Amino acid sequence: MRSEQVSTPFDEEIEELRAAYQAQLAQIGELQARMREVTGTATAKAQAMKVTVGPQGELLSVEFPTGAYRGMAPKELADLIVSTVREAREKATAALAEIMAPHLPQGLDAEQLLRGTGDVKQLIPSEAAMPDAVREYVDRGRPA
Fold it and tell me: Which residues lie below 8 Å from residue 87, measured CB to CB, with a gap of 6+?
């Protein structure tokens, strides 16, 4: 004779939590994929150069659409490179922040977080969110 286990409301809540967790994992995977595709591109004045950076600010390409850079002094060209890369990185950071913002706790600035100036503690709630039945189980043990 085979005994069947009776499902309780507690078991149903656990399954709902598991399903919600799996859905969050899938959403995080999609979010990561979108974030990996982010780039930032900036073009310097007089189109002397154009740069593209990846999501972490890594330099992906440098182009010189015109010959304008040829007449620049080395320091002027160096400053142009630095400022153009900085602008492209700022654009990439803004694009990442736009993707991340809807998934962060309210009040947490995604750009500040990406720049390392945001309060990372805001990412973790002060108390774990859980249904009342689960909270009761954690606090008192499995209900009868």
Answer: 40, 42
